[in-house]
Amino acid sequence: MTAPDISVVICVYTEDRWEDILAAVASVRGQSRPALETLLVVDHNTALLDRLAHEYKEPVAAGAVRVLANAGPRGLSAGRNTGVAASRGEVIAFLDDDAVAERDWLRHFAEGYADPRVLAVGGRTEPVWASGRRPAWFPEEFDWVVGCTYRGLPPGRVRVRNVLGGNASFRRTAFDVAGGFATGIGRDGDRRPLGCEETELCIRLSRARPDAVLLIDDRAVIHHRVPEVRERFAYFRTRTYAEGLSKALVAQSVGASKGLESERRYTTRVLPAGIARGLRDALFGRPGGAGRAGAIVAGVLTAAGGYVVGSVRARRGGARFTVPSVEVGG
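Predicted structure:
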């Protein structure tokens, strides 16, 4: 079976990440398996749009960079939908604007699509801490707070409920079947760090196509920059609360049974083991052990609080999101 052509979509929104954006594009251009194209989707920032258009002004050709304006409402979901609609590849991969992909990233994604049942393949995201090392109190079980692969995910190439959006790919037919990323769930620039739009999409996709296979291949690696502000407990608390709000919206869309299926295993198995590990480290005088155990407890309580608030808002009709159709085909 011929390996699919892959379009890469990178959504951007601020000139503050200029060097990161250039590094992300360079990492795509350096792939061992070349991308068909790279689409930079700019989220309602005219200055950044013009600057990137000037930076990548070569004619459209194989592997070229195309700079587009987000055609929908402000936010990551609409930006991704814009990229999907404009893309030409059989597979659309998504890379965060502050991340760089390892050389074989796309090759490992492409291998996953040898099985025609596979509609999504995700990868492993490693944190690059601004301070040079992981904060002693920061538990690996909560690396999702900074957009990275967390302790508790299975290793290797495995079937999963959902991929993680900053390092993911979808067969373009997935969007024909399920529609696009829901607007009103995901991130909107530097506002409250909501998420879960890819979770909601994946669950919706599996409902529309019960035979669909979704994979994570931990050989498809990217390195994600974690700025100093996100190494602080204040951000940790804000992000976990926002995750609870987002999970409530997902549960509203797909039901709590599916919307919280993986989270139940995570909270009943992975997190208790993390607390025990932290307390054991504290007992033996290892740095950060008590802090990690405490952060896990705080993260669970804060996320639960967000979920309760989000559920009440949803019942009262104060929280809404939209699932758009996406006209794919470039």
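Summary: The mean pLDDT is 90.
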